[in-house]
Specification:
CATH superfamily of the largest domain: Methylesterase CheB, C-terminal domain
CATH topology of the largest domain: Rossmann fold
Largest sheet: 7 strands, parallel
Number of helices: 6
Structural class: alpha/beta
Order of helices and strands: EEEEEEEEHEHEHEEEEEHEHEH
Number of strands: 17
Strand content: 25-35%
Number of domains: 2
Length: 299
């Protein structure tokens, strides 16, 4: 069956439950935001007692009717989420009670509308700088060189290059990329702080962590974007990128990141970039993507 929010009906796509904002966001199959609504969080009669808390996160719109009247069940892995349409005034004939409830909901709507999506609180004094993350694989080194060549020498954010390599010859890649840009190019090392105007070749096993003094390389690379401030970052998928990175990139985009993929022309392996663009991300040749980055951070 499909999902209906007011006048909107979706038969494919995803919803995102934000418990901090007490709000539900609905996205279509291309990843475009189509609607949002405030939600009341908690359990009602008929919900599974072994899972009393309302789960947060992303849920695929693959729904069916619950045994509870008016409820819809959505599934994300082993986690089930029940959505119940709210009936205002249907069970109380007192006009004052109905009016008060409507006013409370209107007030909640107005307060939520004034709120914005924010990143988790950071320690006092921590840098708010994000980073540009460039992902590539087969056919990617040439595209990465073109991208770096289009960035100004004083580009005001660190640029992280995660290039999938056979044999992990990252030292050779550092030398190749240095010939394409006037910015310093280094091999990322655990504990090293990220600096503006520097390019880092990032091994796939190394991640990024946030500390009191900003971002450093550390941890593992399984959740590369998790601690990078989304509203001051970008993710670029070039030729040969891992398609598994499309979902994390779109999640980063939903929180304010600039996300873009290489256009098919001249792209040796466009699978991941095309999947990203199909979900609403920008597309362009590497030089064009460099101009987008320079426009986002003019220096």
């Amino acid at each position: 069956m499909d999902l209906q929010l007011g006048q909107l009906r979706l038969d494919r796509g995803q919803i995102y439950v934000d418990k901090e904002l007490a709000r539900l966001f609905a996205f279509d199959a291309a990843g475009r935001l189509k609607a949002s609504t405030p939600v009341l969080l908690g359990a009602v009669r008929g919900d599974a007692p072994e899972v009393p808390a309302t789960p947060a996160g992303r849920f695929v719109i693959d729904t069916w009717q619950s045994s509870v009247k008016g409820a819809v069940v959505m599934v994300n892995g082993d986690v089930a989420l029940s959505l119940h349409a709210l009936e205002i005034g249907e069970r109380d004939d007192d006009p004052q009670t109905r009016d008060r409830f409507r006013r409370d909901l209107d007030d909640l709507q107005m307060r939520i509308a004034d709120m914005g999506l924010v990143d988790p609180p950071r320690a006092a004094g921590a840098s708010r700088d994000g980073a540009v993350v460039v992902l590539a694989g087969i056919g990617g080194p040439d595209a990465v060189r073109q991208l770096l060549a289009g960035l100004p020498q004083a580009f005001p954010r660190p640029v992280l290059i995660q290039q999938r390599l056979d044999g992990a010859r990252h030292d050779k890649l550092v030398r190749q990329m240095q010939r394409a840009t006037a910015m310093p190019v280094q091999l990322a090392e655990a504990g090293q702080p990220l600096q503006r105007g520097h390019v880092y070749v990032l091994p796939t096993e190394l991640g990024v962590v946030a500390g009191d003094d900003g971002l450093r390389f550390g941890g593992d690379g399984s959740a590369l974007f998790a601690q990078i401030p989304a509203d001051d970052s970008a993710v670029i998928l070039l030729s040969g990128s891992d398609p598994a990175m499309v979902d994390p990139a779109m999640t980063h985009a939903a929180h304010g990141a600039l996300v873009a993929g290489q256009s098919p022309d001249g792209c040796y392996d466009p699978a991941a970039a095309q999947a990203l663009v199909a979900r609403g991300a920008a597309a362009g040749a590497p030089a064009e993507l460099a101009r987008k980055l320079a426009a986002r951070w003019p220096g």
